[in-house]
Amino acid sequence: MRNFLVVQSRLERHYLRLIALAIILPTVIVGSCMYYVIFNLMAEQLGIPEVISYHLLPVVEKVNIVLIISLPVIFLVLFSIGRIIARNLVGPIERLENELELIIKNRSTERLRVRENDRLRRLVEDVNTLLERCRT
Fold first, then answer.
1. Across residues 1-5, what is the average pLDDT?
2. Residue 60 lies in a domain
3. Any residues with CB less than 8 A from the CB of 125 and at least 6 apart, and which?
4. Is residue 133 situated within a structural domain?
5. Tally of domains within the chain
6. Is the pLDDT of residue 4 over 70?
7. I need a labelling partner for 135 at 20 to 30 A (CA). Which of 59, 95, 107, 108 fits?
8. What is the pLDDT of residue 14?
9. What's the CA gap between 7 and 12, in Å, rounded?
10. Which residues fall within 8 angstroms of residue 135, CB to CB, at 6 or more apart?
């Protein structure tokens, strides 16, 4: 089993950047919209006097504390799940690339090996069929 903490390929780094971006961008956008709607529009629409909005400051501080504590935890959980997905996607692709490279260099049996539960099983079988046709 590969080390979970080490990013071992460029393709895996690419997918992890996409996953991080997919986590961070919606969080920032939704958080910004939430603050805008809650504090600006509500104060403007309801005409909240300055005295009442001053008393809302502890609420804002509590919301900030909750966000500061929960967002990194949520990010780490989602990023870990994304890391597992990226590993499961990249691993079979890299194995396929390496075996094809060996076949091209004539250092292999000219048949790709596939694991039993591999998601790329059908693709590997199709490539093996193509390789057999090319040999004949």
1. 52
2. yes
3. 114
4. no
5. 1
6. no
7. 95
8. 83
9. 7
10. 110
Coil, strand or helix at 96: helix
Q: What is the pLDDT of residue 42?
A: 67
In a domain, 123, yes or no: no
Give φ, ψ of 15 to 5 degrees.
-65, -35
- Predicted confidence band at 57 (pLDDT cuts at 50, 70, 90)? confident
- For the CA atoms of the chain, what is the radius of gyration? 26
Q: Residue 97: which of 108, 85, 86 has the closest Cα?
A: 108
Asked whether residue 126 is assigned to any structural domain, the reply reads: no
The Cα 104–Cα 133 span in angstroms is 15
Q: In terms of residue numbers, what domain contains 30?
A: 10-109
Tell me which residue has tokens 């093996």: 128
As a 3-state breakdown, the chain gives helix, strand, coil percent values, each rounded to 5, of 80, 0, 20
